[in-house]
UniProtKB/TrEMBL annotation:
Any Pfam family the entry gives: Methyltransf_33
Statement: the UniProt record of this protein carries the keyword Thylakoid: no
Biological processes per GO annotation: methylation
NCBIfam families: egtD_ergothio
Protein name as catalogued: Dimethylhistidine N-methyltransferase
Domain Histidine-specific methyltransferase SAM-dependent: 29-328
Amino acid sequence: MGDHTAMQAGVEYAEAPINHAEDTQGFLHDVLEGLAQSPAMLSPKYFYDATGSRLFDRICKLPEYYLTRTEMAILERSAPAIADQLGPGVLLIEPGSGSCAKVGRLLRHLCAPAGYAPVEISGEHLHANLSHLRGAFPDLPITPVCADFTTPFSLPSDIPETRRRVVFFPGSTIGNFPPEAAVDLLRGFRGLLDDRGGLLLGVDRRKDPRILEAAYDDAAGVTAAFNRNLLVRMRDELGAEVNPAGFRHRALWNDECSRIEMHLVSRGRQTIRVGGRTHGFHDDEHIVTEYSYKYSAEGMQRLAAQAGFRVSAQWSDDREWFSVLWLTT
Ligand SMILES: C[S@@+](CC[C@H](N)C(=O)[O-])C[C@H]1O[C@@H](n2cnc3c(N)ncnc32)[C@H](O)[C@@H]1O
């Protein structure tokens, strides 16, 4: 067993009891703080209970949502080259692993991988989705961690010993963090690595805003249900008095900030009561529920450099809609 204590850029990964991500007090605290802002803001991490995770899996299959298909195709095509870069005996740590649908593409090509540690806030969903991976890779040590990767969390003490720890962070999850927070998060991930490790990062690229807006506002309304699930969770878990149907879904491209913004827009005047406080909304007033930053080639380089990494290799699709970066220190 190795020493899994590391402190880097203010983020500590220590041997400690597993962090229970489904923390109602934390949810209530964040909701109260977020609703008090102008405009009101709620963190996208609260989309993901078991229902939200299932809705996200449906989004990944939608015709408009090019992200998953494109990144999967990059991994499929470039997995041998990626495996060459990563080297043998790798322990893959995947923050925000969701249903662990992408890692198999890599594992098939890695030389003697040491193990896989998915780290996910939506614990029920994580555990429900590991059986396919265990079936496909019966000899691979898999150590799931239910935790919020934006706060200090611990890796299990029985995690395999290796000198190559690689953080695999696909799905454009980095896009949910504003630039400074994205840099801080990646700096924090450095604390999980060792001298031969690195970070394999999936980044969504800037493109025609019509394609971007459609990807976050599908015709079947699945993304709308996913967005409103945040209000459903507030009602069911925090006892909030809120009518989720009283808010409509909106996805907007903000060119200046290079991001898609997801909003919940009030249909008429109404209130949300939660935690003993009342928040009034006028007609058309919105709550920001997610930012999804899209990167230019220069933006990706800047992000890597500011977080203390260099881009050692990168793979993209032919249209350059999505990139997978291999970042080393
Ligand atoms: C955009 S999805 C990507 C899922 C998967 N990695 C993929 O590439 O398809 C983001 C995932 O990260 C998880 N997640 C979001 N915020 C999180 C946090 N703060 N801590 C742990 N997991 C988080 C969500 O539950 C979800 O499964």
